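Homework help board

Subject: predicted structure for assignment chain

Our instructor gave us this sequence and asked us to write out the predicted structure in C-alpha cell form, then describe one feature. I got the C-alpha cells but I'm not sure how to describe them. Can anyone check?
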Amino acid sequence: MEKAQVLDKSGKVKSEIKLPEGVFSYPVKPHLLYEAAVNFQANQRQGTAATKTRAMVSGSNRKPWRQKGTGRARAGATRSPLWRKGGTTFGPQPRDYSYELPKAAKKNALRSALALKFSEKQLLILDDLKLKEAKTKGAVELLKGLHVDSALIVDSWDNANLFMSLKNLRRVKAVDWSLVNTHDVLKYKWLVLSQQAFESLMEKLK
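My C-alpha cell output:
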C-alpha cells in the first residue's frame, strides 16, 4: 500500500498517511479524463446565445415591388434573410448544453485524476489549513511556504478564513472536499488538501 507524507504549513514532514489502493492504484485513463472535463465545461455553459429570425425582426410583410417588369430581383418582404437588417437563417437559439455522465464514469475519472497527480508528485496533504485571519497576506505566506503557485486548495467550508483569504489570488481556487471534480484537479498544477478533507474525499471514493 502506497503512503503519502503529511506536511505542516511550512512544508516540513510531520507524519505519513496510507493511500487507499482503490483510488491511487486506479489507471490513468486520458479519454475518461477528457470526457469528464468536457462534461464539466458543457454544464457551465449558459446557452443564452440568440439571433432573430425573420419572424422577430422589425419590418413589413408587404411586397416591396411588383414581381415582374422592374428589372430588379424578385423580393417578397423586407425581412428576408437576404436583405440588410433581415432575419438570420438557422442562427443560434437559447438551449441547454448540459448532460449527465454516468456516476461510475465520474467517480472513476476523479480517481484517475488523483492517481495522475500523485504519480507526478503534485499532491500535497497538510495536517491543517486553518488561518488565524481572513487576510490575503496569510494565504500568500501559506503558498510560499509550500512553494506552490497554481493550486486547487481543498478543505471544508467550516474553514471560512481560508476561503476568504484565497478569494483575491489568481491561479488559485479553494473548494469544499465534497465539490472536488476532475476538471479542477487537472486545471491547476498542484492539488493541496487538508488531512481531514483528504480522508473525507477518500471515504466518498471508496
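Reply (TA_rk): Your C-alpha cells look well-formed. For the description, you could write something like this. The radius of gyration is 27 Å. That's the kind of observation they're looking for.
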